[in-house]
Design brief:
alpha+beta; 3 helices; 8 strands; 43% strand; globular
Length: 143
């Protein structure tokens, strides 16, 4: 293992990789939800439709984990090198008024020329904003 340098971290976080959000249920068990994200400065933003179970778990226990990782193709030596950014932090849930954050996040993942109008679809459904303030960030590579 080795630590990622700042340019590798920036490169990984700028990809359209799906994040994995870890929350804790009322019995103390973890749940992992794949979800799109956007980082602005040191803060991570995610949105979700209202009423999703992970939102209730965050409101009960705001301590969360977030992992963004990529894995390279299989090499001749049998290795699949990976890079990952792991975040532990505190999350809040609020209304995504006017879908502003949902649009910003979708624009990072959806190519408007391939899927015209997709960034604005279903904005009439209530969306919630998850804001994660990191306590610790670990960025590593397997090789």
């Amino acid at each position: 293992m080795r630590r990622l340098d700042e340019s590798e971290v920036e490169g990984l976080l700028s990809l359209d990789a799906v994040a994995h959000l870890a929350t804790i249920d009322s019995d103390g068990y973890p749940h992992v939800t794949p979800i799109w994200f956007l980082r602005v400065g040191a803060v991570f933003y995610l949105t979700s439709y209202a009423g999703r179970p992970h939102l209730d778990r965050i409101m009960r226990n705001p301590r969360v984990g977030l992992v963004i990782d990529v894995e390279a193709a299989l090499r001749a030596d049998g290795e699949r090198p990976n890079k990952q950014v792991r975040v532990i932090g505190d999350a809040t849930v609020s209304l995504d008024r006017d879908g502003m954050w949902t649009r910003r996040i979708r624009a990072e993942y959806i190519d408007g020329s391939t899927a015209p109008g997709a960034v604005d679809r279903a904005l009439d459904r209530e969306r919630m904003l998850i804001t994660i303030i990191p306590r610790k960030i670990t960025a590593i590579a397997s090789i």
